[in-house]
Amino acid sequence: MPFIQNTDSDRAEMLAAIGVQKVEDLFEQIPAELRLKGSLPIDAGLSENELRAEVAELASWNSSMEKGCFLGAGMYRHFIPTVVDSLQSRHEFVTAYTPYQPEGSQGTLTVFFEFQTMVAELMGMEIANASMYDGCSAATEAVIMACNLVRKRKKVVVSRGVHPHTRRTLETYLRWSELEVVEAPLGSDGTTNLEGLLDDQTCSVLVQNPNTLGVIEDLDGIAAKTKEAGGISICSCYPTSLGILKSPGEAGFDIAVGDGQCLGTAPAFGGPSFGLFACAQKHVRKMPGRIVGETVDSQGRRGFALTFQAREQHIRREKASSNICTNNALIALRGAIYMAAAGPDGLAEVANHSLAKAQYASKALSSLANFELIFGESSHFNEFVLRCPIPAAEVNRAIDSSGMIGGLDLSSWYPELGDNALLLAFTELTTREQIDRLVSTLSNIATAIPVA
Amino acid sequence: MNKDKLLFEKSTRGSRTLRLGKLDVPPADLSALPAGSLRQKAPMLPEIGELDLVRHYVLLSKKNISITDSFYPLGSCTMKYNPLTNEAIVQNPGLADLHPAEDDGRVQGALRIMKTLADGLAAITGLPGVTLHPAAGAQGELTALLVAHAHFHASGQSQRTKVLIPDSAHGTNPASAVIAGLEAVEIKSGEDGLVDLEDLSSKLGEDTAVLMITNPSTLGLFETNIAKISEMVHAAGGLVYMDGANLNAIMGIARPADFGVDMMHINLHKTFSTPHGGGGPGAGPICVTEALESYLPSPRVVEEENGLRLDYDSPRSIGMLRGWAGNFGVLARAYSYMRRLGAEGIRRVAENAVLNANYLRTQLSDAYHVPYDRMCMHEFVCNNRKQREHGIHALDVAKRLIDLGYHPMTIYFPLVVSEAMMIEPTETESKATLDAFIADMLLIADEAKNNPEKLHAAPVTTPVGRLDEARAVKQPVLRYASSS
Predict the structure, then answer these.
(1) Nearest to residue B244, comparing CAs of B324, B320, B136, B331?
(2) Is any Cβ of chain A less than 8 angstroms from the Cβ of B110?
(3) 3-state secondary structure B364-401
(4) Which of A242, A285, A314, B311 has a Cα at 20 to 30 A from A425?
């Protein structure tokens, strides 16, 4: 049997030592009528070579992003340095458990301590935790934390520019709570409009930067208005953009969250990723998730340990700050290695290249007849919405014919933009040739349609 | 010494590992961005060259104890071997470089992997409705409780708000109940370590929503009354939720649906061999009865005439709990494991897990007190009763094990046994490894009597000794700050 090392004679010796005749006797505590008769309706096992052939076949049914892809919307294909895969795959990291025994886990604990420092720096905040599941759950936990900080207020204002999956996650988590979610609309320039929404009942305001339509928000204004109303401001951001864009901390936000996939992890059909979570140190006792702190051993040597565990479910049970237990440590390790490999200059370089590709594309696309950048050429970072003369789904089919994967048809997420809105994303891995091919494909569409 | 320095202490201005090539388009025009949108102060990330970066993480990795180094009998965590094949297959660009928003037609291979895994989990549990969406076990529990809440709400039984939870349960159970808008009520364990039926009966009623039961329990015991318990809960109009953390002991042997279980979660990072990664990522699929299936979260993989599709808009669904379909990378590893085992292998897992646990229990029960000393499932709990007269606590035994080259067992859990030491060997360990562990545990029992100081001083072989954890709370240092 795969992965089982006991031999038949081992089993016989062990059964004798236990004092039973056969393996079935070990299960005597399960009443006979509850035991499975016959075998499970699951196919027979495969050898390793058979499995690898099967998976290779299944993988070949999928379209990899390698050939050129303009999908983003929260998941981006960025360059991953070899050090990330190679170091993360060290078995000592991969096959260790949560570091509850600190003396035997200084590797993982040191990684988390450094990770917390890097995330806090990136976000411009004082402290960060050791990761959440992903960006959606981080944003949701932030809203719940904010309501614990401002107890009597029950209104949560969420920008329509926040990723639809984040909004849906929030809705699910808050379904049975007393909190009321109010959506802040997007103005004609694509930025969040908070007008008339903030008052003395506002507990928190959640925005995303850049927002799902790629538009850079007025972070200073949002943080200031929320503060004035006495609420907690939460910014969900795209970590790569923080190489050049203003950090939530610089803008005055109370809590910063984000999704870490862009920091060294492949999209992998949506996960696993990890969530970033940062705030001011005075709020540490309300923060969800694991936190590592520095301390010393009896000889005064520096060491790291999980700390503030009194907030957590295994101690606090129903009074815990969150139910999170297992988080996404190994992917957070990838993020840590990535951030260390990049440094401030590398991160700025990746951000600059991504912006440069998007600007090159937006310039070319906006000059095509019948195509328009809905929110203008100067509002975006690496992603923007293009209004096409025909439905986005048809445009994507044309891009498909050019051998690439198109962008996101926004008709189901943002029906108010109609059927012709296409969200296109660019990173440092998008080549000029791919962009030129995209422009030429779209220009063929443009010429096929009479000028309006 | 350089080796204990943090990245920030090794940083040199101007060094770095990641450098992109020449830009093939005109440089970015930052002045085109909205006023006030640029970063003013660069983040203080480490600046470090490739060799020093590699050394840093390799050195850190050596400060961990992992399954790959040593036996890791951490009870309740199922620290089994994580097959290397699983790690290899997910590197395929057809699985890794896959965008979650691609059209269903372009991702049929990924959807087939998910569907086959879901079907396998349905077969193992006997519960036909499966979602692979939850990110971890705790989120799976929450998902199930939200499903239950939605179900009672839809059927006009909104008064059902109580979630009954045995005192031996994982802390995530009551924490999840609260988020689901329900109220946790504790049920006592009887003297036999099983659910106290009288206490359960007294707490069942019109307001009962769900009983959350861990079976086998966290004491490593099968709830022999499970069918009766389910019957009682159902008679009161409630649902039975099984915490599947310990599924490893029974898969292929018995199906939870046959015990009357309505919903359960499965920790793929326990039972299905996906790595723990120092604390995740996991995946916590849940399986439910047909009656509850329509409430499961979105999206779900559905099979239609022209292939598989991700359904994001099922009308009764409780919604999403995270981004996209699920932790696909974890699901693909679990798929790989399930395909290697097949039906026969799955049953062998449970058999050998239970065999290994009972072997350890019988060989250690003279030296260590085993409060529930009878046939166990995949794990058992002992404590320090025979060592405490020498001033030895569970913690001391655990720390001494570290010096002997092991990761310790789980200690101080479950809470119903004082000074608990919970041992789970898993099926992937050989008899030779177990024999060596038994010898070392007997050595520790002997040392506890004759040389207790040795246990109190442990560990001495690790990079640091016992840490001052109180100081970490009183004088919190949660990030590096340069002293300059």
Answers:
(1) B136
(2) yes
(3) HCCCCECCCCCCCCCCEEEECCCCHHHCCCHHHHHHHH
(4) B311
The residue-averaged pLDDT of B21-27 equals 97
Residue of B nearest to A330 (CA): B277
Task: Select the residue of A34, A83, A432 nearest B17 (Cβ to Cβ).
Answer: A83
Enumerate the domain spans of chain B.
86-340
Q: How confident is the model at residue B194 (pLDDT cuts 50, 70, 90)?
A: confident
ipTM: 0.97
At residue B484 the predicted structure's pLDDT band, cuts being 50, 70 and 90, is: very low
Interface of A with B in 363-402 (CB under 8 A): 377-379, 381, 396
B483–A contact, CB cutoff 8 A = no
**Cα separations in angstroms, B357 against B201, B249, B373, B408:** 32, 10, 12, 15
For chain A, positions 283-342, list CB contacts with chain B under 8 A.
284, 290-299, 301-305, 307-308, 310, 312-320, 322-331, 333, 337-342
pLDDT per residue as tens digits for the range A195-242: 999 999 999 999 999 999 999 999 999 999 999 999 999 999 999 999
Domains of chain A (ranges; CATH) run 68-77+343-448 (3.90.1150.10), 82-338 (3.40.640.10)
For the stretch B136-187, pLDDT in tens is 999 999 999 999 999 999 999 999 999 999 988 888 889 899 999 999 999 9
Q: Is B75 on the interface with A (CB under 8 A)?
A: no
The CATH code for residues B86-340 is 3.40.640.10
Average pLDDT, chain B: 96
B53-94: pLDDT as tens digits: 999 999 999 999 999 999 999 999 999 999 999 999 999 999
Q: What is the dihedral of CA B375, B380, B385, B387, to 10 degrees?
A: 120
Contact list, B467 vs chain A (CB under 8 Å): 102-103, 295-297, 303-305
Q: Do B89 and A95 touch (CB under 8 A)?
A: no
Buried b / exposed e across B11-22, counting CB within 10 Å, b at 16+? beeebbbbeeee
Q: Is the Cβ pair B318, A175 closer than 8 Å?
A: yes
Closest C-alpha to B438, from B362, B351, B372, B384? B362
Locate the chain B residue with the closest alpha carbon to A191. Answer: B34
